[in-house]
Design a protein that fits this description.
Strand content: 5-15%
Shape: elongated
Radius of gyration: 28 Å
Largest sheet: 8 strands, mixed
Distance between the termini: 45 Å
Helix content: 40-55%
Strand order of the largest sheet: 6-5-4-7-10-9-11-8
Number of strands: 11
Structural class: alpha/beta
């Protein structure tokens, strides 16, 4: 156990902090841990990398983190402490605010007289920490501790406060935490609507079904119109005569990138995840992969305990405060522990392209300031596993390779995906991060970005994922997405006039098509399919109320919508990588009944449990990204 009282007299507040002794690099050379050439190479690299010299050497495998901490201890005349053996007591939480602990990766350790001993692995930042506390800040001296141990102690001292803050980062008026089905309509209104619908069904069934049919056709027109516009925008886009050269990385110092990977009940994914991310070519000294797991998730914790993590990967545990357990809450909590100026999100099963971060950094360096989010594309490495995996891949190839690029060209709001997202950190924090109660936090954040006047761009990089290829897990995943789309739509449509003022008419209509139209189309699929009854000589309510003359126009429209879906699907998978899926596009009408089932599950949970996060289990694919 460490005892500063044996080593330190009453210190000067700036003695060794402002006038360091032998630098870390020179100490490592003197101790024979590195040679002069290695030091010079690291110093030269530091001109382009915004990272301390010790972290560069650790990331390059030249020295261990313990070697660097020992050198820092000598350089600053500071004591080494093991916070696992000698942690601060609970009363030390009052010595430093949680926000400053996180910003400077420091934790108050002991009072020594009137001087506060602060545990940190960045003693060079101690003066900035003290200045942040104003003129009444105590005198401070550093003690040297491992970064992961510091983060653990921050969570232990301030965990409840930080967990509560992660729940409430988004303002009430645009957060789903203040929304519920009963609040939105009220019990009386719900009962009245249900009674009215029941009366119509009993006393005027033909009229009731015809009105529903008209509503279904309107939603189909919305979604088909959006898809057709996106298709045309892509087909008639201006294609340069020569391929544009790849963006170059900025010549100035490269930024630090922190990528969060939320994990929950993952017992098969850790080793594969490390192997995939190890292939990234962005400088490891500037890469911080933060594995985010719930404190109550013993399955994932035990898995990681058996796994050796690289130096650029660390774990943040989100305290269990007895409220909800959602991905956005975990992201909000972990965000404050990240050190990067660019914040990214990957899923546990993701396999990003090796140069993905270079592309992201280069695009942010070139883009206008209002571009605060970059969205990469997703693809699936187990598309051949079974029919469901093939259809899933076709559906999302259409979405990522055709519809979303078309939507972007039309200037409409991009509903973000849950992974391969990258943000300018300052703007992300300004917007309040993610809505902790929204089960499609990505789509909600895309709307909030647009409403605040910022833009999202698609970046030409692909992340390989695992296609959901089992029926019931597929339904569970899709029901969560549909429920989240509904809640997101209801929250932002609380004040339609304000939403239209924020977005403009065209983008407002785009929201109606992407969110409301998509959900209604899934939920009303059986009603749409009932229209085929007259084609086989069976009666239908619409012929009773509107006459048989409406059958042909509706049939033409219905067939045209199906043909549009087929064309989009075939174009999306016409490339070399997906060409084997073209023959399966014709089977897509048999795939979407699962979406109807998922929509009914979503509607039930919308009333019964709107914030429930239905977990998708990864690691079941027969084919891996490797």
């Amino acid at each position: 156990m460490s005892d500063p009282l044996l080593r330190l007299s009453e210190p000067s507040p700036v003695a060794r902090v402002d006038v360091p002794a032998v630098p870390v690099g020179r100490q490592l050379v003197n101790e024979g841990l590195i040679d002069q050439n290695t030091l010079l190479k690291a110093l030269n690299l530091q001109h382009y990398i915004d990272a301390p010299l010790g972290e560069i050497l650790v990331a390059d495998g030249q020295v261990s983190r313990d070697d660097v901490l020992g050198a820092l201890s000598v350089q600053y005349g500071a004591q080494r402490v093991d916070l696992a053996l000698d942690p601060p007591n609970a009363a030390m939480a009052k010595a430093l605010p949680a926000t400053l602990c996180q910003r400077f990766n420091a934790v108050p350790w002991r009072w020594f007289g009137s001087t506060l001993l602060v545990a940190t692995h960045r003693p060079d930042q101690l003066r900035a920490l003290r200045d942040s506390m104003g003129e009444h800040a105590p005198r401070m001296l550093p003690v040297i501790a491992e970064s992961d141990q510091v983060n653990t102690q921050i969570s232990l001292l301030h965990g409840p406060e930080l967990a509560h803050r992660a729940l409430n980062t988004v303002p009430d008026d645009i957060s789903s935490r203040t929304w519920s089905f009963s609040n939105a309509m009220g019990a009386t209104q719900v009962i009245l609507v249900l009674c009215l619908a029941l009366c119509c069904l009993v006393f005027a069934p033909a009229v009731f079904v015809s009105v529903l049919m008209g509503f279904c056709l309107l939603s189909l027109a919305l979604t088909s119109g959006l898809k057709a516009a996106a298709l045309l925008a892509q087909l008639f886009r201006r294609v340069p005569a020569q391929s544009a050269p790849l963006a170059r990385l900025p010549l100035s110092r490269l930024p630090r990138v922190s990528v969060m990977v939320p994990l929950f009940r993952e017992e098969q994914i850790a080793d594969q995840l490390i192997k995939r991310l190890a292939r990234l070519t962005y400088p490891k000294a500037l890469l911080e992969v933060v594995l985010v797991l719930e404190a109550k998730d013993t399955v994932t914790r035990d898995t990681l305990a058996r796994t050796t993590l690289p130096q650029w990967m660390r774990v943040i545990e989100v305290p269990d405060d007895g409220t909800i357990t959602t991905k956005p809450r975990a992201l909000n909590y972990a965000l404050d522990f990240c050190s990067g100026s660019i914040i990214g999100i990957w899923d546990a099963e993701d396999a990003p392209e090796h140069d993905q971060l270079e592309k992201v950094v280069a695009r942010f360096a070139e883009a206008a300031p209002e571009v605060v989010c970059l969205q990469g594309m997703l693809d699936y490495y187990n598309a051949r596993q079974n029919w469901l995996a093939r259809c899933f891949t076709i559906e999302y190839a259409t979405w990522w390779r055709l519809v979303l690029p078309g939507v972007a060209r039309l200037g409409l709001v991009l509903p973000l995906g849950g992974t391969t997202l990258f943000f300018r950190r300052d703007i992300l924090e300004k917007l309040g991060g993610w809505d902790a109660h929204n089960v499609t936090e990505d789509a909600d954040l895309g709307i909030r970005l647009a409403r605040a006047g910022y833009r999202t761009e698609l970046v030409p990089t692909v992340t390989m994922e695992e296609a959901n290829c089992r029926a019931w897990p597929w339904v569970k995943q899709r029901s969560r997405w549909i429920k989240g789309f509904l809640i997101t739509y209801c929250v932002h449509m609380r004040r339609p006039a304000r939403l239209m003022a924020d977005l403009g008419l065209m983008r407002f209509l785009g929201i109606q098509a992407m969110f409301l139209g998509t959900v209604i189309q899934f939920a009303t699929l059986p009603i749409l399919w009932s229209f085929w009854l007259p084609a086989v000589g069976l009666p239908h309510a619409v012929t009773t109320t509107l006459g048989s003359g409406v059958v042909l126009p509706i049939a033409i429209f219905f067939i045209a919508a199906e043909m549009l879906n087929m064309v989009c699907g075939m174009l999306a998978v016409s490339g070399k990588q997906h060409r084997h899926l073209i023959a399966w596009v014709v089977s897509m009408p048999l795939y979407f009944p699962l979406a109807a089932l998922a929509s009914y599950k979503a509607l039930y949970e919308l009333v019964s449990d709107p914030f429930y996060w239905d977990k998708t289990q990864h690691g079941t694919a027969q084919t891996h990204a490797d």
